[in-house]
Amino acid sequence: xxxxxxxxxxxxxxxxxxxxxxxxxxxxxxxxxxxxxxxxxxxxxxxxxxxxxxxxxxxxxxxxxxxxxxxxxxxxxxxxxxxxxxxxxxxxxxxxxxxxxxxxxxxxxxxxxxxxxxxxxxxxxxxxxxxxxxxxxxxxxxxxxxxxxxxxxxxxxxxxxxxxxxxxxxxxxxxxxxxxxxxxxxxxxxxxxxxxxxxxxxxxxxxxxxxxxxxxxxxxxxxxxxxxxxxxxxxxxxxxxxxxxxxxxxxxxxxxxxxxxxxxxxxxxxxxxxxxxxxxxxxxxxxxxxxxxxxxxxxxxxxxxxxxxxxxxxxxxxxxxxxxxxxxxxxxxxxxxxxxxxxxxxxxxxxxxxxxxxxxxxxxxxxxxxxxxxxxxxxxxxxxxxxxxxxxxxxxxxxxxxxxxxxxxxxxxxxxxxxxxxxxxxxxxxxxxxxxxxxxxxxxxxxxxxxxxxxxxxxxxxxxxxxxxxxxxxxxxxxxxxxxxxxxxxxxxxxxxxxxxxxxxxxxxxxxxxxxxxxxxxxxxxxxxxxxxxxxxxxxxxxxxxxxxxxxxxxxxxxxxxxxxxxxxxxxxxxxxxxxxxxxxxxxxxxxxxxxxxxxxxxxxxx
Length: 607
Fold this sequence. Notes:
- By secondary structure, the chain is an alpha+beta fold.
- The chain contains 17 helices and 23 strands.
- The strands form eight sheets. Strands 6, 11, 12, 13, 14, 15, 16 and 20 form an eight-stranded mixed β-sheet that branches. It has a three-stranded antiparallel β-sheet with strand order 8-9-10. A two-stranded antiparallel sheet has the order 1-2.
- Helix 3 packs across helix 4 (104-110), helix 3 (81-102) runs antiparallel to helix 16 (506-528) and helix 12 (402-414) runs antiparallel to helix 13 (430-449).
- The chain is elongated.
């Protein structure tokens, strides 16, 4: 049974429910009327609506005798250890998220099974929690200092409810953005797929046998002539250097530039066709122009008379034809004459259009990227040191019969530089295309000549010799000594194993940075608003501890719904006394002016 007390108050009567009671021996509830009267009197004197603040020591003393005081007095700090710890955790997560992407070793190991995405998602979630733990404090401080101090705004901010009733438009937008931010970031970082991370590996960990390198045909390519290997090797180069739809040519790349799996663009006139998977090259250089033109005229006028040289033309049916000349039968194949010449041109006119390409074998270094889809040349370089005489013989003493097999492929490769409809013979890409054609032509032809020995691998096969290759004293050379196929030790090879990871983009790092920077920004502004009469523990308990009871009558009817029909203000006023200081709260209609409380005093303990 609840018993109500009626007391005479200036201006009329008000109802106050007794909150201190005891049970008599019958079980009925009785009221200590002396205590109730003291409490009512103390509540009326504890807050003056006209600014006369005082705290009744008698009331506090009498109240403490009746009910234990559970509140924990405290002085407001400029910044709390928990906030510092939150900022530290957020920064650590930022550092780890950047490390997970930027560090090749870590990203490579996490690239298996999408662990990189999982780790970054976890770190972003922690950064989001850190941000959400510090942002409400700044928001309520801003509302108290610069806003209308609306009770519904405080309630929605503390509960993070952007759809709360009577919430201000500005705060509704802010809370929606704060909820959308982590969702947007969790989507944004997943759009940076398509990258890769590479790591040097020990070949023996993946290949149980000694690594054999040489003029291997690419996987799946079988040909007696080498034409299919020629097109396969040059495809990447042709696609990368093709004209745009508007006819614009791409600029020359930075040298050296790799293409495909074994084409290395050394400079504007030299291209290397590397042994697969690595090392060795054919370096192509244009000969001395004046001497060459004089020699070519003499050679051209002799035509195909005799057994030393062979000269062939292919009509392109656009008033141009393609010409190729080299040694006949078993001979020196290290020189190739190649060019696009006008139809029916005489020897002197033709000499201005053709070039001499001399083929040498040199030592090169290359790096290959190994992925699930295959392998690709990543970078390479070559020095000026020629390989020994024995390893030059694959080009300087061989039977290739190139005119029989490569006239049509070369014409298809180079026709774009003839006539008026293609790039024309003034294009800077014509010489690189011809150099690439010669290098790939010799490589593919030699590789296919010996494919029978490579299809069924047996290391003994590579110790065999072919009688056309001999040392200077007449000793036959093995395949390994000639350099067609040869073993490479682990110290002489570098294998990069690539795995798909997130792209290392500055925009991705911006996604990581956004939440920690925003959290630090919020903490900085929170420190600047130190004097506002709100602490880190602002909430339901602090308001109930200092609320002026008579002001609560306007909230009647919202005990279950928690909603009000109109906006109401929460007025906060620090009350300073010699012995006890506190903060008093009062609820008033929003129409009652813009009354604001004072500032907190530094190093003062508030009850």
